[in-house]
From TrEMBL, chains A, B:
Any Pfam family matching the protein: GntR
Superkingdom as given in the UniProt entry: Bacteria
NCBIfam families in the record: C_P_lyase_phnF
Gene that produces this protein: phnF
Protein name (record): Phosphonate metabolism transcriptional regulator PhnF
InterPro entries associated with the record: Bact_HTH_transcr_reg, Chorismate_lyase_/UTRA_dom_sf, CP_lyase_PhnF, Tscrpt_reg_HTH_GntR, UTRA, WH-like_DNA-bd_sf, WH_DNA-bd_sf
Keywords: DNA-binding, Transcription, Transcription regulation
Domain HTH gntR-type stretches: 7-75
SUPFAM superfamilies xrefs: Chorismate lyase-like (SSF64288), Winged helix' DNA-binding domain (SSF46785)
Length: 241, 241
DNA sequence: CAGAATTTGTGCGTATGTATG
DNA sequence: TCATACATACGCACAAATTCT
């Protein structure tokens, strides 16, 4: 393993093992190579391997027993999140037979930043937006954190409607938006920020997938801008062509 | 800034500043807040801020001058990589008026892993594949590293054809594949592995966007499986709906 | 069943990296 | 720049649980 640059060796190794487990290198219940072998393979001290394993054990992915070895405890199949014109969180999760849930964790009314004015095509003097922060959960596990912005003048009661119904689709419908479609999605990745780590229960420094999207109504007018951060180790995005 | 294991504070802050610069929080030529202010904002010692700034300076993103301040030297607009049924690397890059380049960095013939057998729909006894490792470059900057697999029995001379033409499209055409389209794309993110860091000239522990795709010919038969790792700080994927 | 071999668990000393003031 | 504290990583040794012969 290559020497440093601000990321501890044990963390790099832990992330490697995590993706190996996810890719099925060792099946659930399967046995990992011995600490001996792993330390030789990564070219590090056994203590370092043990630190990495202990991290994954604490997260319930692995378990070690003295004299026996280290075993894969849980290899949760990653959720798949299709990106298309009509993706709705709850439908997707339900289709994969998991219990969906959204939790309103913050909201507010604020002045739109320039990039938001452009994306929502706000006109002069109507630059106020509602901001809605929602944590998405599947089977009790946090999978994504989304920040949503809506033009405040068009959707004055959006926050309370969402609070009542727990659904953005329904909150928009209450304001006369019968249908909306996803126009464009931008996808990037970066390291999680501390607040994101907290909500998504990620290790600090874990990667997040970020999607930026614009939803438009039937007339093509933007009704919602949304920035969603997915826990990259729990979800995979797919695009069908 | 929150105290946490495995990732140095200065790295977390460097990554934050990098995404802020990319998001245009400070324009090119713009002045960053003083180290004083930044250290207060992140709740860390000024030394730590300086370490983060020095990292970004070494990468040519920032520059500091005594008595004046720290300035944004380079805010390269991120390349946008659209994902659709007919995306070809060179077309995309050219359209954004950058000089594209692909470099063959490795190849080989090997037995297909089970998941490859499934994705390429290989029949029994024809499980050999060609592997092609290509580094993609735009304007002299590495943007992605892709591993490509092809059924060896159908495309016996693929590697040499690619070496001659520098184009997968042409190498496939030489084997009678007039056209192909992208069937499905899976997108995930993880930390770069050491070898990826080396090729993409990434800092260790930097995130990569990973896309897995299957290309099929006009008859719908898989001709290529490809896994591409993008430097997440240099590229953004987009999906048009 | 005894004893050897294997594998994880633990302790200590040292050197270097990270973060503060 | 210096001093201090803690985290990271290494190397060695040995203990404890389990498996193999």
């Amino acid at each position: 393993m290559e020497r440093t640059a601000g990321v501890a060796l044990w963390r790099q190794i832990a992330e490697r093992l995590r993706t190996d487990i996810r890719n099925g290198t060792w099946k659930e219940g399967g046995k990992l190579p011995t600490e001996q072998v792993l330390s030789a393979r990564f070219g590090v001290n056994r203590h370092t391997i043990r630190r990495a394993i202990s991290e994954l054990s604490a997260q319930g992915l692995l378990s070690s027993r003295q004299g026996r070895g280290t075993f894969v405890e849980n290899a949760p199949s990653p959720l798949t999140y299709p990106i298309g014109p009509r993706t709705r969180f709850s439908e997707i999760i339900s289709r994969q037979s998991r219990e969906p849930g959204g939790r309103l964790i913050g909201s507010g009314r604020e002045a739109a930043q320039p990039w938001l004015v452009e994306k929502l095509r706000l006109s002069l003097g109507q630059e106020a937006v509602h901001r809605l922060e929602v944590l998405h959960v599947a089977d009790g596990i946090a999978v994504s954190l989304s920040t949503n912005w809506f033009p405040a003048h068009r959707f004055p009661d959006l926050v309370s409607r969402y609070a009542e119904t727990g659904s953005i689709t329904k909150a928009l419908a209450a304001h006369g938006v019968a249908d909306y479609i996803r126009k464009k999605t931008e996808i990037s990745a970066r390291l999680a920020e501390p607040e994101e780590s907290r909500w998504l229960q990620l290790a600090e420094g874990a990667p997040v997938l970020v999607t930026d999207l614009v939803n438009v109504d039937e007339a093509g007018t933007p009704v919602q801008v949304s920035r969603t951060r997915f826990a990259a180790d729990r979800i995979q995005l797919t695009v069908e062509n």
